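U., I forgot to send this yesterday:
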Amino acid sequence: MPQKPNSRSEEEEILFDFDKEKSAEISSNSKAHENEPEAEDSLSLEESVFNDADRSIPLPEATASDDVYAEITKSIDDSVVFEEKTTRRNKYKDEQNLVDVDNPFQSDRSEKEGEIENYAHFDEEFEQRKNIRTFDEIFKGWAKKILPHKGDKKSEIVRKLIADLSVLVLIGCAVAYLVIYIQSNRQEKQQAGLASQIIEVSDDEQEQKLWDEFYAKYPNIKIPEGMMAKYAYLYALNQQLVGWVSIPNSGVDVQVVQSPNNSDYLKKDFYGNYSRYGCPFLDYRNQTRFLDQNTIIYGHHMSDGLIFAELSKYKKLDGFLQSPVINFDTLYESYTFKIYAVIITNSREEDDNGYVFNYTVTSFNSTENFDAYIKALDERKLYTTGVDINSADKLITLSTCTYEFTDARLVIIGRMLRTGETKDIDTTYATVSGNPHYPQIWYDTKGISNPYLDSENWYPEG
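Result:
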C-alpha cells in the first residue's frame, strides 16, 4: 500500500493557528475589562476564587473546543483523500492495470496502452519516412550544391562555374580517351585480320592450288589478269585494293586502295565503314599495272601510332638510318624504293606567299622538268641520304600530316631500286641539311626571315 502523506504536521499547524487566534481574543477581552472598574473587581474576585479553589478537582470538559478540533481534523483528512485521488496515477504510473475505483469512467489501462503503442509505432514509421529522401529531393539538393542558383553570392557562382567547367573538361577528356582507345583497339584488330588474308606461296604448284580453292569459294569474283595469288582473298573483300605498303623496322604495314577521287577513303575504312583512321589510298591518277614516274600514297598520321604515324621519325636522320627503304607491292609486282629525300611543306597557298610545292605530280613531261623538280627537292630536304637519282628513276611519295603549322605535310620521297642494285645503302654520306627551304609560315612562326623569299618556284609542265 502507498504511504500517506505527512498530514499530521499540517494538522498541528492549524491547531497552532487556532490557539493563537483564541489567545488573541482572550487578550482583547481582558483589555476591554480593564477599562471598566467593575470588571476589575470581578476579575480580582475570580482570581481569588481560582486561587482558593481545590486544584485537585478536575476542570470541566471543553466541549466546544473538541468540536472545532474534530471539524479541522476531518477537513484535513478530506483534503488528503482528494489529493490521493487526483495524484494517484502520477504516483503509481509504473503499476500495471491500475484502476481508480473512485472514478466510474476510468477504463482498463491495458487497453489504452495498446492504443498508445500503436500510435507510437505510427509515429516511428512516420519519422522514418521523413528521413527517406526521394530521388527528386536528392537530385535537387545535389544540383543546388554544384550548380549556381539565385541565392548564391557572386564569388560562389564563379567558384561553382569554374568547378563545373573543370569537371566537364575532365569528363570530356575521359570520354575522348575512352573513344580513342576503343577505336584504336578495333583498328588494330581489323588490320591484323586483313594481314591474315595474305597467303604466301613458294612455288607454282602452291599458287595453282590457292587459285583453285579461291575460285571454288568466290566463283563470281573477277580477278585482274596477272594478279599475285597471295592477295586474292584480300581482293575478294574489296575490289578497290591496289597493293600493300610496308617499311622495315617501323609500324607502317598496311593495305592500299584506290577510288575515283582522293576523298573517299579519308574517313572510310577498308570495308567501306566510317572510320577516323580512313585507309591509305593511291592517288586516283596513278596507274597500278605499270607504275607512273611518281606514285603517291596518302595516309593519316594518327596519334596512337597507326597508319602513317611512324613516318614522323623521318624528321630526324636517325629515322632514315633505321628504315632506309620502302616496300610497295602492287597486285602484280613487288617493288623496293630507297629513300631519297624528306621534306616539310604546306598544302595551302596562303601559307607560302601564294605558292604550294606540287609534290603530287604523277609524271614529268621532260627530263628538264624532272631535274628541276629534283633541284627543288634538294633545296627543301631535311638531310641528304646519300642515295643518287636521275630522270630514268621512278619515284614513290608517301604523304601524311604533320603539326609544325596548320595543314602542314610530311613527305617522304624514294626512288625505285634499279635492276641489279642491292637494298644496301651507304649511310656514310647521310648528313643533315644546314638550312632547308620551308614555307613562309614556318619562318613567321619562328620569327625569322625567309632566306628563300626570292628563290624561283618550281611548277610541273603541262
